[in-house]
# Entry
Amino acid sequence: MGDEGRKTELLVGLFLLVGLLLLGVLILQFSSLREAMKPRYKLNVTFPSAAGLIENAPVKLGGATVGEVSAKPRLNPRFNGVIIELEIFSEYQVPEGSEFVIGSSGLMGDKLLEIRPPDPGEITGKFLKPGSVHEGKGTGGLGALEDAAFTLTTKTEDVLIGVEEAIELLAEAVRNLESGFLSAENATSFKESLEGLNRVIDKIDARILAEENIETVEGILGGLEETVGNFKEGSATLDEVMTKLQPVAEKLEPSIEKLEVALDKFGQTADSVKNTAKVASAKVAELEEGEGLLPMLLKDKDLKNQFTALISNLRRHGILRYKNSASESKEREKRAGGSDEDPAEKQARTEHYRVPYRR
# Structure
């Protein structure tokens, strides 16, 4: 009995030991204790709001759990958002350009953090460095729908407020229209204006648009058409005349060119004459204003007469037999007439007309 009892107790103990080992394996396999023992690295993500996201919330990448939220969200230094610390398992690498979104899972709406990798064509092969800080893109899933519904509701309320204000303004405008433009006085004035307009139209029909005036206008239009026809005929005749005159104009072109050359030469000649006249005028001015024999002959009439007498005596008697014929004739006249001329005056006059002769 003792040996059998010991065997039974040994088997029972062995069975309990195997059961405890299996239970431990099951606990390690299906609990988070195994994940807690995995090596990890940290990432920091900023969000404007992380409502509902708690510590140890899972981090999903492509549907697989790649880490968890290591701590509760904390406020950033500016107090306009939160910073969430993530612990990513070392066996997973997050590609650069990935988006961090707060999502939800299940019907209960448990919050989780979802990592959305970039498109396959935008993957560069580089991964996020441990300890780096990244910016989140808000909420996703049911949370995104809630945020969108809230934003839409807010905008709808603003639109409804604007519609109410517009309706009030429209009602006020209608009231002003009824009290102002559509009043009895304005209606009467509008009616009178229409009646006056009808009278004016009747006068136009009776006077301006009468059959006689229409016939007159038709006659004027007929005359105008005839005038246009005559003008066309005259234009054709003028074209024929211009065609005939064209050879004559071509023949006259060489003569016109020669005439232009002659006019150019005449202009040059006129300029030369003008310049010569200016020089002559300058010389005459010099003779009139200058000093010497010629200016004195031009200015002094007595000197001119004396010089004329000198030339006449030289022609008559020559240089060797020069005599003052005018003086001798005057002396003879005075002798014959018994002149009482003063001797001093006579001597001065003789000296005045005497021309020295040097041999």
Summary: Confidence is low (pLDDT under 50) at residues 351-359.
